[in-house]
């Protein structure tokens, strides 16, 4: 777990497992980029890739999953929802509409730092 992930998600985050597929004992806070509008959706799901497919079905723009953070469901579904809301509040000045935020400034830096650090950690394993 990198320092940024630890700071924002702390005890709710558990190390990635090598198992295939998603387990119901975890949910994910995800970041989906709409490349055309330079906007990011911050949401949560038990399966972010499947959620991406659902969003793509009603959106003509090119969307991609920037990344997701696994959160234990043992704290209840409200734990992942609470982190989604915490991120919405943290980045409210970038809010375009509901869960969609401008992909710029502090939000872009946060996402870049969070997932670049995670990629470096994964490569080091």
How would you describe the overall organization of this protein?
Helix content is 41%, strand content 26%. By secondary structure, it is α+β, with helices and mostly antiparallel strands. It has one domain. The protein has a five-stranded antiparallel β-sheet, with helices on both faces. The two termini are 12 Å apart.
Key traits:
4 helices; alpha+beta; 125 residues
Mean pLDDT: 81
Global geometry: globular
- Helix content bin: 40-55%
Q: DSSP helix count?
A: 4
Provide the domain count: 1
Estimated radius of gyration: 14 Å
Largest sheet: 5 strands, antiparallel
Written as H for each helix and E for each strand, in order along the chain, the element string is HEEHEHEEH
Brief sketch in words of this structure:
With 125 residues, the protein is an alpha+beta fold.
């Amino acid at each position: 777990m990198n320092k940024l992930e630890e700071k924002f998600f702390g005890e709710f985050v558990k190390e990635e497992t090598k198992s295939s597929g998603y387990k119901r004992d975890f949910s994910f806070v995800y970041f989906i980029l709409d490349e055309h509008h330079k906007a990011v959706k911050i949401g949560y799901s038990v399966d972010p890739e499947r959620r991406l497919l659902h969003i793509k079905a009603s959106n003509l723009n090119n969307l991609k999953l920037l990344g997701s953070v696994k959160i234990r469901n043992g704290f209840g579904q409200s734990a992942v929802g609470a982190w989604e809301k915490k991120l919405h509040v943290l980045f409210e000045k970038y809010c375009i509409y509901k869960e969609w935020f401008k992909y710029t400034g502090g939000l872009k830096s946060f996402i870049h730092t969070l997932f670049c650090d995670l990629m470096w950690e994964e490569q080091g394993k």
